[in-house]
User: Which sequence fits this backbone?
């Protein structure tokens, strides 16, 4: 393909600057020593990171988000894996509809999901339940786990399984010793992506969250809606750094373009 | 009694017939090839023997035991797949020893057998590597070692050499055949490459459209094909259409483009429209006007392939291709007028497909 | 577990999918249906939601100019964002595709990475950037490009900018996927036949990535039409879009039936746009990729 000319590289630089700008600004602001958002500032300080640690509301919300994401990702993958195997390995009527159904939460606006879940949970009186919130997050993350598990399962060399059988392995042993290890990275990548999606989830959770089950994004949203102070910025910086770390992990495991775009070769 | 028997086997997928009818007997220690173009059903047949596909009708007997409905993991056959199907997350040792692990062999005994198998395929010392660190040829040997480590009674090979380059393939033909002879293991090879089949097999089953068209030794299959398909698929041949004038005790008199040829009919009751065949290497160039010249014509194409000269000659009988060994002076150039001769015993005649007579 | 023979599927796939199916059936399908039912309920200021049925909510949303303005504003915003995403995203993806490793991977990471960061963080960044005292205004004033701060927060312009930032990675993803399928030798073939690089791009490359641009546009349009957090934070209380209007009714006025109505209409519009345009695009471009 053609090489990039000067114009192309300039455009790229500006584009990257555009993408990075808000994130860079947030990180910068979080190091201010003042009590309000200002840029530029003269003294750098970690006071807002220390304040973060002492802010019970934030810490509780962070802890809840982590717990929620861990559980939702795990359940999501546990449900998505067998479904992915079913879809990848069998031809059966309704296969396409089933796949579409499982992927549908990605197509439904988060607002609509939030309203639907809120209505459902309040009818059942499950308003403040952690597990109810968790179930809604499982629904949100399952499509992501499924997509990755599917692309792994579809790309599997079926002959490897047959080879195991011809070596005398029972079906279950062949699955355990040959199939599972071969799709391991796809499944693990699905887990990490699900964790991130659950942790970041905002719009739907705004509807379903209660004072007792407030996730970190929701807490930050509520805060920002009133006023922005450097505390939210320091929380954001922690999140950005954490996400970058997870991103690098994901890229090493599965390759970030495969995760975000799907099965491109 | 033969070692492996396929009796009345057929396989249908809904409307589609993959295997129409197969009867096959394989002797113990034999190397048999299933040879045919893609879609002829050879791989399906192998998969049925291995147990990955269940026949629609018929039985498969192994050493007298009916294994038609037995699960693949119980059949104890060594299978080598076209893509090798190595376990990417295990080392070479792990791959080769997997079958032994499934038989609950102890670690020490396993290691010994694995080393033995790797030695057999000349991969000593590579046991600790992973498949992705190996070349294509090495991976193929691992696949073979994995199948042989279990000391199976039957070895099944599904086009295992189609991914190798030509030189390597030729080497593997000889090597694999010598391993097979040394171990005396009954082997079935699926291939579309007739040179491969002829090089390695004791017998060849030529398959066409879900049936076995001919089952014989490589020499017989090549020299005395029984169907037009087998004749065209194995090697190159000259095909001359004609009509039977008279059937004698040993020969048929066939009129080909105005000339009468005497063709041995080998007991086939041919009549009416037939095809006469002769292999290019059995046709010789002679000087025009000498005794024994069967036809004359002009050389239209002359090609040099290293060990042979290939010529296309327009004769009164039709276009003939001639293959001449490269062991002396080159043949005349394009445009030259030459005569061609052959021995009548090298002619074959078969009924044209779809016409009356013994087909 | 293993399918070895294609005609023996049986109940296995359904058993494997059962747990997920159960969860989705009960926790996705049922709530959506309940929401639909809710949209037909009556709401009274004094008594809340009553279990009687009416079409009044739909009539109100469809006829009241207040909602008409909201729908128009949302559609306008979505079009603007989609347009910007195409104008910015497509060239960027082409530039990316021509890069060599490792730069390509690094740039791809930077462009797509923000998708993994919560939208709250990204929107906070824009609030800081666009504020009257924000970075952008300070910089513009320092460079003497403007004398007074430009109002960007609480304007549609600000929302469009921020939303473009949030959604342009989706456009990049979609076009990237299409670019991967392109056979680079096709370009060489065009050049060998005498076409200039520009010509080759216009007549050979562009038509082939059009499906990617289209599907990216559909995704971006659908996501921006249903966007909530960014319009809420940057647009403020007075610039309502469909999603924030639904929020208002549901959690503000507590008029659940009306909120549900807006949600249902949003869902229908979303599905219609995505499926409708996808079907159209598929039919038009079927002959390129079979």
Assistant:
């Amino acid at each position: 393909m053609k090489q990039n000319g000067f114009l192309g590289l300039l455009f790229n630089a500006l584009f990257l600057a555009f993408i990075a700008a808000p994130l860079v600004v947030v990180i910068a602001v979080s190091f201010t020593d003042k009590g309000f958002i200002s840029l530029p500032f003269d003294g750098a300080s970690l006071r807002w990171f220390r304040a973060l640690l002492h802010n019970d509301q934030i810490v509780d919300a962070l802890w809840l988000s982590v717990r929620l994401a861990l559980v939702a990702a795990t359940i999501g993958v546990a449900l998505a894996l067998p479904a992915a195997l079913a879809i990848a390995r069998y031809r059966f009527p309704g296969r396409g509809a089933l796949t579409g159904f499982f992927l549908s939460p990605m197509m439904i606006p988060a607002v609509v999901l939030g309203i639907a879940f809120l209505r459902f949970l309040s009818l059942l009186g499950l308003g403040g339940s952690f597990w109810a919130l968790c179930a809604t997050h499982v629904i949100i993350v399952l499509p992501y786990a499924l997509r990755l598990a599917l692309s792994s399962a579809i790309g599997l060399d079926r002959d490897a399984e047959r080879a195991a059988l011809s070596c005398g392995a029972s079906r279950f042993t062949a699955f355990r010793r040959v199939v599972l290890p071969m799709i391991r990275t796809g499944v693990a990548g699905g887990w990490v992506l699900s964790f991130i999606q659950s942790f970041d989830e905002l719009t739907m959770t705004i509807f379903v969250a209660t004072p007792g089950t407030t996730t970190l994004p929701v807490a930050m949203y509520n805060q920002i809606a009133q006023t922005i102070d450097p505390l939210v910025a320091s929380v954001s910086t922690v999140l950005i750094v954490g996400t970058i770390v997870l991103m690098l992990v994901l890229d090493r495991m599965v390759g970030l373009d495969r995760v975000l775009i799907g099965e491109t070769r | 009694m033969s070692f492996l028997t396929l009796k009345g086997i057929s396989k249908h997928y809904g409307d589609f017939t993959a295997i129409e009818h197969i009867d096959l007997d394989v002797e113990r220690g034999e190397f048999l090839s299933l040879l045919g173009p893609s879609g002829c059903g050879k791989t399906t047949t192998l998969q049925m023997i291995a147990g990955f596909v269940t026949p629609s009708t018929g039985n498969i007997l192994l050493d007298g035991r009916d294994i038609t409905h037995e699960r693949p993991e119980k059949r104890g056959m060594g299978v080598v797949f076209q893509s090798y199907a190595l376990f990417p997350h295990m080392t070479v040792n792990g791959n080769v020893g997997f079958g032994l692990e499934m038989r609950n062999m102890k670690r020490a005994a396993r290691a010994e057998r694995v080393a033995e198998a790797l030695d057999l395929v000349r991969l000593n010392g590579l046991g600790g590597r992973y498949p992705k660190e190996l070349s294509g040829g090495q991976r193929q040997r691992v696949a073979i070692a994995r199948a042989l480590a279990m000391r199976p009674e039957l070895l099944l090979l599904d086009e295992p050499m189609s991914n190798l380059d030509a030189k390597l393939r030729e080497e593997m033909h000889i090597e694999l055949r010598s391993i097979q002879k040394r171990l005396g293991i009954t082997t079935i090879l699926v291939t579309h490459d007739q040179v491969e089949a002829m090089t390695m097999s004791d017998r060849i089953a030529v398959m066409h459209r879900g049936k076995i068209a001919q089952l014989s030794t490589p020499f017989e299959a090549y020299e005395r094909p029984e169907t037009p398909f087998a004749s065209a698929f194995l090697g190159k041949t000259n095909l001359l259409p004609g009509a039977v004038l008279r059937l004698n005790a040993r020969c048929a008199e066939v009129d080909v483009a105005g000339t009468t040829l005497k063709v041995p009919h080998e007991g086939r009751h041919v009549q009416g429209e037939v095809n006469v065949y002769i292999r290019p290497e059995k046709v010789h160039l002679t000087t025009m006007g000498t005794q024994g010249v069967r036809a004359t014509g002009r050389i239209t194409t002359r090609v040099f392939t290293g060990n042979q000269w290939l010529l296309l000659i327009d004769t009164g009988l039709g276009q003939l291709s001639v293959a001449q060994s490269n062991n002396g002076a080159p043949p005349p150039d394009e445009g030259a007028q030459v005569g061609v001769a052959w021995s009548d015993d090298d002619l074959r005649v078969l009924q044209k497909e779809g016409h009356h007579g013994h087909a | 577990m293993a399918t070895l023979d294609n005609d023996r599927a049986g109940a296995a796939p359904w058993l494997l999918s059962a747990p997920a199916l159960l969860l989705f059936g009960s926790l996705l399908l049922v709530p959506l249906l309940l929401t639909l039912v809710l949209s037909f309920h009556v709401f009274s200021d004094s008594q809340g939601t009553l279990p009687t049925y009416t079409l009044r909510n739909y009539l109100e949303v469809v006829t009241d100019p207040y909602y008409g303005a909201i729908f128009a504003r949302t559609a306008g915003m979505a079009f603007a964002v989609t347009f910007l995403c195409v104008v910015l995203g497509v060239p960027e993806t082409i530039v990316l595709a021509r890069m060599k490793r490792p730069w390509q991977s690094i740039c791809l990471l930077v462009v797509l990475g923000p998708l993994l960061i919560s939208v709250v963080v990204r929107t906070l960044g824009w609030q800081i950037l666009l504020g009257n005292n924000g970075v952008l205004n300070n910089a513009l004033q320092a460079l003497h490009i403007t004398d007074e701060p430009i109002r960007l927060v609480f304007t549609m312009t600000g929302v469009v900018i921020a939303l473009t930032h949030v959604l342009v990675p989706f456009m990049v993803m979609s076009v990237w996927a299409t670019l991967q399928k392109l056979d680079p030798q096709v370009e060489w073939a065009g050049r060998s036949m005498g076409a200039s690089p520009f010509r080759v791009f216009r007549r050979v490359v562009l038509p082939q990535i059009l499906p990617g641009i289209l599907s990216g546009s559909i995704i971006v349009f659908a996501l921006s039409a249903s966007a909530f957090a960014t319009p809420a934070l940057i647009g403020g209380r007075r610039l309502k879009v469909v999603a924030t209007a639904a929020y208002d009714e549901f959690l503000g006025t507590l008029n659940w039936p009306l909120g549900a109505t807006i949600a249902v209409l949003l869902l229908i519009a979303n599905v219609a746009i995505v499926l409708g345009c996808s079907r159209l695009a598929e039919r038009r471009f079927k002959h390129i990729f079979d």
